[in-house]
Design goal:
Elements lengths: L12 H6 L6 E7 L7 E9 L2 E10 L7 H18 L10 E2 L8 E2 L5 E6 L4 E2 L7 H17 L18 H14 L9 H8 L2 H12 L6 E3 L8 E4 L5 E4 L6 E3 L1 H12 L17 H15 L5 H5 L1 H21 L12 H18 L1 H10 L2
Antiparallel strand pairs: 1-2, 2-3, 3-6, 4-6, 5-6, 7-9, 8-11, 9-10
Bound molecules: adenosine-5'-diphosphate (ADP), 2-acetamido-2-deoxy-1-O-phosphono-alpha-D-glucopyranose and magnesium ion.
2-acetamido-2-deoxy-1-O-phosphono-alpha-D-glucopyranose (GN1) binds next to loops.
Length: about 375
Amino acid sequence: MSNPLPTVDPSILAHIADGFTLEGSFVKGSRHGNGLINDSFIAECQNGEATRRYILQRINHHVFKDVPALMDNVRRVTDHLAAVTQAPNRQPLRLVRTHSEQGFLLDDHGCHWRCYDFIEGAKSYDVIHSLPIARAAAYSFGEFQAQLVDLAGPRLHETIPDFHNTRQRFANLRAAIDADTVSRVSTVGPEIEFALARESLANSLLDLHEAGGIPERITHNDTKISNMLIDETSDEGVCVIDFDTVMPGLGLYDFGDLVRSATNPCLEDETDLSQVSVQLPIFEQLVAGYLGSARSILNATEIDQLTVSGRLITYEIGLRFLTDYLAGDIYFRTDHPEQNLDRARGQFTLLKSMESAETEMRQIVSKYI
Ligand code: ADP
Ligand code: GN1
Ligand code: MG
């Protein structure tokens, strides 16, 4: 449910692959990854003895309503990262052009496809338990922000307006409660009560930004741990992926989403909530890793708010899952009926544990200041 685009028949992948400047001839394609928005496939090509792999992605244009603008951002950001990345163990994401040198093509249904080099020897994690991986991922996301500080040219397009406007996300929940389109409100009283009781958290970073305490930056905005490819042998961060939401934002959104996704020892839709709680040793590595690469670009207020950012983004994504559940599962990909509710409960449980651990989290941050 929830992706209203036509189902992809894998037999069209050869035709899609044909539109891009790939090395070798297309051999086979298969679905890949666990993203909740786009459809990703591996395309395998044979070039003499060598096999080359690529990622083909169909972009969800119901979520990203201006794909040319989005791809303009992606092109500028990938080109910039390719120019400034020096460390030999990093492989910046490379956008493969079409034969007419475009960043995407349209299929027969009017859907947009793009292609990236497949990064070999690395993998993404939905859940992490490893301290070195936590540190490496946080270092790489911080490095990503630092590398984009001097991106030339006009302000990036906002590919989803108000994406991290948590005040707006809160208002969207209220609207979904009032509309109650699929009559689910009466079944989720405790979750709604939990969400509504925390309205003030929704304002925390926005208030500081509006008062001039936190600057706008170019940020990734979707830094869940699975959007980082980790080297399979060295556990280093190799490549930041999923650039659809790279746009103006607050640096703390990125740190917060990393805290949300990496400190949770469970999958987002875990139903045994007794297993869900913030893992403080992982949090410590995130702080150390992120400050290791981003400290020089951050101001004192941003560093002071590192703890708050984890709570804010966990709250925000919980609001979004609950809103989508009340709206009838129209946004996030789901594969079973209560999945968005399970996800919302997971986020709220994680948030509650962060609230209980606030003092310890602050102490950890203060060790690195
Ligand atoms: P979505 O927006 O649907 O989350 P992503 O761009 O995050 O899409 O890709 C989905 C998954 O595909 C990732 O979690 C990762 O496992 C894999 N992936 C994406 N791009 C690459 C790449 N260039 N090389 C290798 N794997 C990739
Ligand atoms: C989506 O695209 P993906 O799966 O990496 C969502 C994020 C959420 C995340 C929750 C464009 O990320 O905002 O935090 O799901 N992306 C968009 O898992 O809405
Ligand atoms: Mg992703």
